[in-house]
């Protein structure tokens, strides 16, 4: 009842936003695209979405009324900057007016958003299903009675996990350690790896720590005669920005300058050439060389790795892909040398690649040891299966909050909606559609959509543009909010409710950007 | 309207919980204590609370129906353990039935909670004011549209900060970097310290990074000829459990074993003797020796400190106090050597010591450089004032979420309630009352309430007991949930709505525990 009441006023504000948009002159081409899109046959998944509210809740297209930032945003940014660093600000956002795939600002600009809060909004702004979930008594309880989950878990915590986070656990992994964000999800996974490795060296879970081990730990050292351990990561990889995760992050100097880091090894990530079919042999050679380097580092680095961490697609580093065969090889090498494999699915997870987990594309017979998640899950942690990855004593892997039941409930609601609407399969199809259109655009404008990548990977698509930063800035003028990554990549990170009609609007805007460069 | 509807059903459930409690036979002494308490004159702050709902919403006292865990809890723990490590579980909790200062479990046990989710529940379970805040449209918006705050802050983010987090900013600090929990609040503060220090070495914000600096950062090294830097922390201190924060944590081996740590220095925290007035000279000497050691480490450690981090009261480490003079001395030494002072108020902040920030007790003329917060704030981050602590370029201090507006709104509501009811002053008074009663108890049972500490520090009180772990376990039988810390400390961490009547119940239960030892 209560939530229905609030929903009414919410629908009212949606309507207001939509009216505001429709009274604004939109680029003619966008309207044309929309009419074209409306004539298309609905695919199965599209019709599932059409049968719900998803086809009626959004504005029909973007509205650009002012420069971005406009006068109202400029004033607010100035005020904000006094107390909060705004130099990385991209767009001041009016979240009350943002709807579905559209992000709004205080000056009345409404952009198609294919950046989605750095790839982390899963099923649209102001999604009514999440709105209801937010008003549920369970959610309210999670907000106002935040538990120390390791000490005082809620009576229904098992059920929350089993019907939520664990319902979508990667194959072979049936347990979870919950965390707050991607960086601490990775760091707690690293901690589990170190404890697991030392336990093996010690001879098992039953072997107690020596006095020397305890004393050396208290002075931040390893016991005399023992070697320090490391986590091996890949060049241009990104795993977070706290001290342990940043030691495995190798994306850009600006992330790492002046911050102390561990002496941990890095391997080369294969630099694939595009189009893939024209460079099959070179690419296979690059992947083999990378795997050889990994094996060499595992067996010879002076700080031996307890684990290798890898992203299925290096996202912050520029959307660098490798083949399923590469990852199967990585699994085989790590298994061979008894080194753990941690797959960082913080950005790739939860459906955007057309599979729920990007590593589902690899067809692994032997699952990763740990898989970390965050972003579109709206909560974080690492999955694991091997019971030996539970440290041998309580309080070794522990902190006050250890996650957030409120955010876990939100993920549960997100999963429900993904399943109800088949959004993973939907995203696979829409991704194919979008990829085809971008391929055509690339042929029309040589060099402007270079190294198009992400075929068969849902909407997790990227390309390089020689004037990337200007490209992103101009895209806003044509009604689209897009992010970059690496040195020159334009990365598309639409939500899971992104449809072919949105792809049409996006492609239309991208073409305008390129035309404006001439 | 909507929230009022939900409030009705909420009040109903409160009533149900309270009825359940009153139909249970409670220890006679508890009832007697309650009557005694009811006869007392209300102090000004107590009457403020009495005039609100705070006097009527809770059960009259604890109810212990079964062993803890009871049969229902045991079953649920077994199920939970299959997917989530429960070895550090203290008490499975029914958060729907927990009210105010009372924590409930699925077997109908209702305990007075002076542990409060490891010192992090500020104004009671199921506080109706927070309940309303959770149902506000701003909160719902924050939950379902989680922003990447560094890139896409909400239009009203400045206002949320100024009327919330920054409204209670420590004196001299007017800016904030928001975070997710205590550990990343500390680690981002450390990062700010390292960047600040290197910037000074470089000659200022305008000096660009050299190629060598960028290249060495990418291989986790400092440039040739440059020394690595450190954070100096204190023995038995606790600052979190991620890799950087754990490198400064020196509480117990179980927190640190097998986890790689940086070669950073630790100084001795003065071990004060109690009662303080009988050991004034020795204690002053211990503090002087500690300060000398800090200065020696700052000037001579082979990995020079960019900052010193310290807790106003070492909490996890066993409630170790030092005098205001010690902290003023620490500020003077760090200032003298141009080393930053980071005050970790994760556990001490937000009122429990009878001041909003524990370092308000120090009467500093020169404020700390950064103050970190979490726990009772229900959100986290670090305050700072010096504009040079903003790194010289954007994206140096950055991550996807950079905090959580929903939790920031909750803190704002908490602050509102703290101010409305004068809960900081209230806690100072109730703390004095509780301390007096414990002092009397200590005289009656020599050795059982050893090293009683926290006089004049609100309810942030602790004592040592020779059978501490058993003491905590037995306290549950007598209706009280209490936490320990360090080797032998019983630490009291009541909420800010803890009143004299609760102190009476607590003291009564503590006496029963001690009697049961005979």
UniProtKB/TrEMBL annotation, chains A, B:
EC number from the UniProt entry: 2.6.1.19
Broadest EC class assigned to this enzyme: transferase
Gene Ontology cellular component list: mitochondrion
Alphabetized UniProt keyword annotations: Aminotransferase, Pyridoxal phosphate, Transferase
BP GO annotations: gamma-aminobutyric acid catabolic process
GO MF, one example: 4-aminobutyrate:2-oxoglutarate transaminase activity
Keyword S-adenosyl-L-methionine: no
Domain of life: Eukaryota
Cofactors (names): pyridoxal 5'-phosphate
Catalytic activity: 4-aminobutanoate + 2-oxoglutarate = succinate semialdehyde + L-glutamate
Pfam families reported in the protein's UniProt record: Aminotran_3
Family per similarity comment: Belongs to the class-III pyridoxal-phosphate-dependent aminotransferase family.
Protein name in the entry: 4-aminobutyrate aminotransferase
């Amino acid at each position: 009842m209560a939530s229905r009441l609030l929903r009414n006023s919410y629908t009212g504000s949606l309507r207001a936003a939509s009216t505001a948009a429709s009274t604004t002159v939109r680029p003619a081409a966008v309207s044309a695209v929309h009419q074209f899109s409306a004539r298309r046959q609905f695919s199965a998944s599209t019709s599932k979405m059409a049968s719900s509210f998803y086809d009626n809740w959004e504005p029909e297209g973007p509205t650009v009324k002012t420069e971005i930032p406009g006068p109202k945003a400029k004033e607010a940014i100035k005020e904000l900057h006094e107390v909060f660093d705004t130099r990385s600000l991209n767009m001041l956002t009016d979240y009350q007016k943002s709807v579905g795939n559209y992000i709004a600002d205080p000056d009345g600009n409404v952009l198609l958003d294919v950046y989605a809060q750095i790839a982390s909004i899963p099923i649209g702004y102001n999604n009514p299903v999440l709105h209801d979930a937010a008003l549920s008594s369970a959610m309210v309880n999670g907000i106002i009675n935040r538990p120390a989950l390791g000490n005082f878990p809620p009576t229904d915590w098992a059920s929350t996990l089993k019907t939520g986070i664990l319902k979508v656990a990667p194959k072979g992994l049936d347990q979870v350690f919950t965390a707050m964000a991607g960086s601490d999800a990775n760091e707690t996974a690293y901690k589990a790896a170190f404890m697991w490795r030392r336990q093996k060296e010690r001879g098992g879970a039953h072997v107690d720590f020596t006095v020397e081990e305890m004393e050396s730990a208290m002075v931040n050292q390893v016991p005399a005669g023992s070697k320090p351990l490391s986590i091996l990561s890949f060049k241009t990889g990104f795993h977070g920005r706290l001290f342990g995760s940043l030691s495995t992050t190798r994306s850009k100097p600006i992330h790492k300058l002046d911050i102390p880091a561990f002496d941990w090894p890095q391997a080369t990530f294969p630099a694939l050439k595009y189009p893939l079919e024209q460079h099959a042999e070179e690419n296979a050679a690059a992947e083999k060389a990378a795997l050889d380097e990994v094996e060499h580092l595992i067996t010879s680095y002076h700080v031996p790795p307890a684990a290798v961490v890898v992203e299925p697609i290096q996202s912050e580093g520029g959307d660098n892909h490798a083949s399923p065969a590469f990852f199967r090889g990585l699994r085989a090498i790590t298994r061979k040398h008894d080194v753990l494999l941690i797959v960082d699915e913080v950005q790739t997870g939860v459906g955007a690649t057309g599979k729920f987990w990007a590593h589902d594309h690899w067809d692994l017979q032997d699952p990763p040891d740990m898989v970390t998640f965050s972003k579109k899950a709206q909560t974080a942690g690492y999955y694991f299966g091997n019971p030996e990855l539970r440290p041998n004593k309580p309080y070794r892997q522990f902190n006050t909050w250890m996650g957030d039941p409120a955010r876990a409930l939100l993920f549960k609601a997100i999963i429900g909606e993904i399943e109800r609407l088949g959004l993973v399969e939907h995203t696979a199809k829409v991704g194919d559609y979008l990829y085809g259109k971008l391929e055509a655009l690339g042929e029309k404008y040589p060099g402007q959509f270079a190294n198009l990548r992400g075929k068969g990977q849902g909407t997790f698509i990227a390309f390089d543009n020689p004037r990337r930063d200007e490209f992103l800035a101009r895209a806003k003028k044509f009604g689209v909010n897009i992010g970059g990554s690496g040195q020159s990549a334009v990365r598309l990170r639409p939500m899971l409710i992104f449809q072919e009609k949105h792809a049409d609007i996006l492609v239309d805007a991208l073409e305008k950007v390129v035309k404006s460069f001439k």
